[in-house]
Amino acid sequence: MVSLTEVLVNPTNFIGPFAEDFIITPGSVGELSTSVMIYNFLAGPEKTLFTLPMGHIDVRDVAAALVAGIKVKGSHRLLLTGEWFDWADAIKYIATTRPELAPRLIKTGSTGQDRPIINNKKALEVLGITLTPWRNSIDDGLDAMLTLEKDWTEKGIDLTGLKNNEWVGFAESGANTRVEFTN
């Protein structure tokens, strides 16, 4: 008799820094995935981001969950999300902790939607992991994007695509959400 063990981890929107050995083609915004959303917070006060409540999880926590899932006995399908916050919370946090970036921060507008909640208690118990606080994920993701911005600037790479939000939007990638900027 063969015993089948299967752990399926379903994470929400990934945030956080790039892996140290992650290679990004200079100027290729499409390779930045959801990390570009954190950079988009710096699009300037003339733009407004209408935020949607969604779950976010640090990419390092997703990696830890996948590794932990290998060691789990039994079969499980686990929803995995970090602390709940929205982009407006993150923008307020950045304005408070990094006042030098405040002039670059966008305005936020509400979509009028309530925050959904995913209870990940079972996932944390089964996997035996702890999650990164969302503020750490934002700080580390923002640091990674600012380092990338500085590197590309020093190399003379055109930042137009990055600054104009030229990336594959959520609606275009098949997800059911969309973040839109208005002037």
Structure report:
- The protein is globular.
- 34% of the residues lie in helices and 14% in strands.
- It has six helices and seven strands.
- With 183 residues, it is an alpha/beta fold.
- Mean pLDDT is 81; it is low at 166-183.
- The strands form three sheets. It has a three-stranded mixed sheet, with helices on one face.
- The chain has helices at 35-40, 59-71, 87-97, 121-127, 134-154, 160-163, and strands at 7-11, 13-15, 48-51, 56-58, 76-80, 107-110, 181-182.
- The longest helix has 21 residues, at 134-154.
Low-confidence sequence ranges? 166-183
Shape verdict: globular
The largest beta-sheet arranges its strands as 6-3-7
What is the helix content?
25-40%
* Main sheet: strands, sense, barrel: 3 strands, mixed
Mean pLDDT: 81
As a percent range, the share of strand residues is: 5-15%
Question: What's the helix and strand layout?
Answer:
Elements: E1 7-11, E2 13-15, H1 35-40, E3 48-51, E4 56-58, H2 59-71, E5 76-80, H3 87-97, E6 107-110, H4 121-127, H5 134-154, H6 160-163, E7 181-182
Parallel strand pairs: 1-5, 2-4, 3-6
Antiparallel strand pairs: 3-7
Task: List the defining traits of the structure above.
alpha/beta; two-stranded parallel ribbon; globular; three-stranded mixed beta sheet; 183 residues; 6 helices
Q: TL;DR of this structure?
A:
With 183 residues, this protein is an alpha/beta fold.
